């Protein structure tokens, strides 16, 4: 048997360029807590979870299964990073909600709040539609680069350092959304 075949294979999930910050177990425990809180605070309401595509898809899937209430889901897709790196605060709606939110208790579900520009604009857009209430749930809160300091986040998974994070729905140029954990990419130029 060659030495090569004895080496453990490096896969997408075991890539040494990824520093794991939150494991699958830590994530599922935290989401159960968030789900219980949301369940407690929305009993008797007409609840709609609005996921912001694509980053929120994994969080949305887990969060909704931890909320023991009647609810519906909807999705929006917005683009805010016109040049790929710097957030301009200009939000273009690529896909709007499928159903009206008038009279509903809405929770907007995001993967991460960074500058807060995307969510602030999204909330402005949604606030004119007659919802009973609009709350925010973000899996990660990265407060350091926040520009919109007035943005109120109602449900937060984890408060994270000012590093570029991937996994659990978050991507780097489209990659890594499928990682079951949250990691920091140590060397962005390496593969
Ligand atoms: P904001 O307008 O700066 O708050 O932008 C938030 C959006 O930027 C998120 O929904 C993500 O799509 C993206 N983003 C911000 N920080 C990260 C990160 O560390 N990793 C991956 N995507 C990020
Ligand atoms: Mg996003």
Describe the 3D structure:
The structure is a single chain. This protein has 191 residues and is an alpha/beta fold. It contains four helices and nine strands; from the N terminus they run αβαβαβββαββββ. Helix 3 links the parallel strand 2 and strand 3 (71-79). The radius of gyration is 18 Å and the shape is globular. The mean pLDDT is 92. Bound molecules: inosinic acid and magnesium ion. Residues 52, 55, 110-111 line the site of magnesium ion (MG).
Q: What ligand species are in this complex?
A: inosinic acid, magnesium ion
How many strand elements?
9
In round numbers, the mean pLDDT is 92
Q: Output the strand order for the largest sheet.
A: 4-3-2-5-6-7
Category from helices, strands and their pairing: alpha/beta
SSE run:
HEHEHEEEHEEEE
| Major beta sheet summary | 6 strands, mixed
Beta-strand percentage?
25-35%
What global shape is seen? globular
What attributes does this structure have?
alpha/beta, binds magnesium ion, 6-stranded mixed beta sheet, 191 residues, globular, 3-stranded antiparallel beta sheet, binds inosinic acid, 21% helix
In short:
The protein has 191 residues and is an alpha/beta fold. It contains four helices and nine strands.
